[in-house]
Amino acid sequence: MGQDLRVGVFVDAENVRYNGGYQMRYDVLRRFAGRQGGTLQRLNTYQAYDVERAKEDAEYAKKSRAYQQMVRDFGWKIVVKPVRRYTDEAGNVTTKANADLDMAVEAMLQADKLDQVLLVTGDGDFIQVVTALQNKGCRVELIGFRNVSRQLQQEVDAFYSGFLIPDLLPVSYEPRNDWGAPGSCVRGVCTKWLPDKGYGFLRFIRRISPDLWITDPREDGSPYASVFCHGSEVADEVTEELLMNRETILEFYVQESEQKDNGLVAKNVRLAFNVNR
Question: Taking all residues of the chain, what is their mean pLDDT, rounded to a whole number?
């Protein structure tokens, strides 16, 4: 693919925000989208803005403008959707800023000039959009956090959990975290657990790379790292059943092994996210 690859990224910002991706870094997302060296043809994010609230809450208006400017500084086009209020028969007020239609239409209109589309959402309403994009010859990848439609994951060409992409979602209590370095905090999955021996192996992505398909850390060029984990380092909430479920996202610290050259061990392993929760 290389330099000839034309990439389009479409972010359902409200879906991301309410499903675990709050504070997602758009600079890292851009780096991930361009990891194969192609041209980032479209960078679109669809965000909500509450006009009525902004009139009464100056701080909200200020923070919203500052956030939008920061995202624009990273080269993104922001499509702002006004929040609408609806009142039901009981007098209950609900708000909605649904950008699904805009995002779907624009992705389809621009598909003829794209080779690869990266959707950032978990909304199953995009299943037909994915199929249509693929029928136009586009490779479709997906990033999601919580509550990602199972069918949507199966329909795309590749799904990546946003929790596992290095630095895409900051570790809030480690503001200077150097992902993957000894002493840093990372997120990964358990690839092997031996209950009778009380230990196993975790895996995390060391770096954003075009070779994410090389999932075996033992192979040359693999961007993944294997980490030894002793059961004594695992929090009580992380059961053996959760450990042996590849959809369980673990958060842990990595340290250099004292027993093995260039080896890594996991410390303070806890549950970051489980798909069933």
Answer: 92
Number of domains in the chain: 2
One domain, residues 192 and 137: no
Q: Which residue range is the domain that position 214 belongs to?
A: 185-274
Global pTM?
0.91
| Bridge partner list, 199 | 194, 230
What is the phi/psi pair of residue 27, to 5°? -70, -40
Which of the four pLDDT bands, split at 50, 70 and 90, describes residue 31?
A: very high
According to the 3-state scheme, what is the secondary structure of the chain? Answer: CHHHCEEEEEEEHHHHHHCCCCCCCHHHHHHHHCCCCCEEEEEEEEEEECHHHHHHCHHHHHHHHHHHHHHHHCCCEEEEEECEEEECCCCCEEEECCCHHHHHHHHHHHHHHCCEEEEECCCHHHHHHHHHHHHCCCEEEEEECCCCCHHHHHHCCEEEECCCCCCCCCCCCCCCCCCCCCCCEEEEEEEEEECCCCEEEEEEECCCCCCCCCCCCCCCCCCEEEEEEEHHHECCCCCHHHHCCCCEEEEEEEEECCCCCCCEEEEEEEEEEECCC
Render pLDDT for 165-205 as a digit per residue (tens, 0 to 9): 999 999 988 989 999 999 999 999 999 999 999 999 999 99
Residues 155 and 193 in one domain: no
| pLDDT in the model for residue 172 | 85
Same domain (yes/no): 153, 191: no
